[in-house]
């Protein structure tokens, strides 16, 4: 995948290495509308969306982004018409089979967040195999798919886990803090996102990473996910590069720290 160096790649796109986010999370929205505009079946939009996943994963790998998280299927998406859900399951099967060698060859760790309860066993096995095999190869990037994911169910599961620890005495009430909560979420081994992108012009967060986005930067674009190309990602990264992340501090405090 990488024939030029990261520095050359960033220079080519006019990007500043020191302003590249470590973790980008994307709400990939607009597949259905993209297909509808062409009077095509919604599933065709999801297949085109999977091509965008390839393009953007490859771009992020070359740009040296360490974590890319993609919202591929929400807990609420199970309520879509049966043929769309089964079409998406088939697309996921194909993705897990076809991407295996590209992930391994490019040292990309495959990861998932979400509930395993409703997936067919063959999909769960493919996910587990890919997670295990790609974890073994000294990863330079982690690609996380949010599958059957909802932030509120994630938080409920975490509260239950920590409550059980408190009841059994493994943890004291006064030991429950932000880091204990973070380390019991699905995202326990990935950092909080620096940048959240949502495509298709919708301005909402849709139950995605509610705890983890406390200090993330947001970027919204009208571009539909199947149309989201490398240039759109460059625009998002340049916009991010111009943000001042203060984490509750003052501009003066931030500038003083940067000049040290
Ligand atoms: C939202 O668009 C998209 C989804 C619910 C599915 C996301 C799936 C992909 C991007 C395909 C990639 C899949 C894998 C396996 C990685 P929407 O259907 O809500 O679009 P709409 O709002 O225009 O109807």
Can you describe what's shown?
This protein has a six-stranded parallel sheet with strand order 3-4-2-1-5-6, with helices on both faces. 33% of the residues are buried. The chain is built from ten helices and six strands, in the order αβααβααβαβααββαα. The two termini are 37 Å apart. The chain has a single domain (21-154, 191-259), classed as Undecaprenyl pyrophosphate synthetase (3-Layer(aba) Sandwich). The protein is of the alpha/beta class and 260 residues long. It has helices at residues 6-12, 31-37, 42-63, 82-98, 100-105, 121-135, 151-168, 178-182, 230-241, 251-259; strands at residues 23-27, 67-74, 108-113, 141-149, 195-198, 217-220. It binds farnesyl diphosphate (FPP). The site of farnesyl diphosphate (FPP) has 19 residues, from helix 2, helix 3, strand 2 and helix 4.
- The helix/strand series, from N terminus to C terminus, equals HEHHEHHEHEHHEEHH
Distance between the termini: 37 Å
What general form does the structure show? globular
Tell me how many strands there are: 6
- Average pLDDT metric: 96
- The class by helix and strand makeup works out as alpha/beta
CATH level 4 superfamily = Decaprenyl diphosphate synthase-like
Unreliable stretches: none
| Ligand types | farnesyl diphosphate
Number of helices: 10
Counted up, domains total 1
The CATH class assignment is Alpha Beta
Per CATH, what is the topology?
Undecaprenyl pyrophosphate synthetase
The whole-angstrom Rg is 19 Å
How would you name the oligomeric state of the polypeptide chains in this document?
Answer: single chain
Spatial strand order of the main sheet: 3-4-2-1-5-6
